[in-house]
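Quick one: structure for this chain?
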Amino acid sequence: MDIVAYSAGLAFTGVREFDTKHLLVDVTVADTSATHALSGAAATPGFAAETSAARKHNTYGDLFDSSSYTLIPFAIESFGRLGKEAQALLRGLANHIAGGPGCDKVFRGRVMHNLRQRLSVALQRQLSVRTLRHLAECRRRGLGGTPAVVERGDLDAGVMGVDMFRSA
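Got it. Here's what it folds into:
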C-alpha cells in the first residue's frame, strides 16, 4: 500500500467509512492511450481509472480485514481524470482540512482546488520522468525516429506502452 491512514487521524470527512475505518490507499496511474484501454477510454469517460481501480480491488480485496480497513484505489488517468473512489477521498480530505461537512463551502472549494492542483503537478512530474526513461531506453536500444505503437511489455518494465520514438 502506498498510504495507510488510521481512523483516529481523519475525522469530519463526511464519509462514515473514512471516519471509522483505517484507510489503505493504493495509487495507480492508468494510461488512457495504452492499446488495451484505448477503445474503452474513447467510449466511456473514466474507463481506464475505473478498470485500474477494479484491478486493485481484485488484487488486494482478500488480503486485509474489511471490517477494520477500507481499500481505496486512488486511480488517476494519465490525462488527469480521477476515478470515483479517488474523487471521494479528495472530497473527504477537503472536508477534513476545512473543518467538517458543515464548513464554509468556499473554503472547502479552495482546499479542493489546491489538492487537485498539487495532484496535477505531481502527475506531470512523474509522466515526464517516465517519458525521459522511455526515451533513454529507446536510445539504448538504438531506436529513434518515426512514431509507432508497440505492445505493453515490448520494452522493459516501467516504460510507457506507446513507443513514440521507434524507427520504422
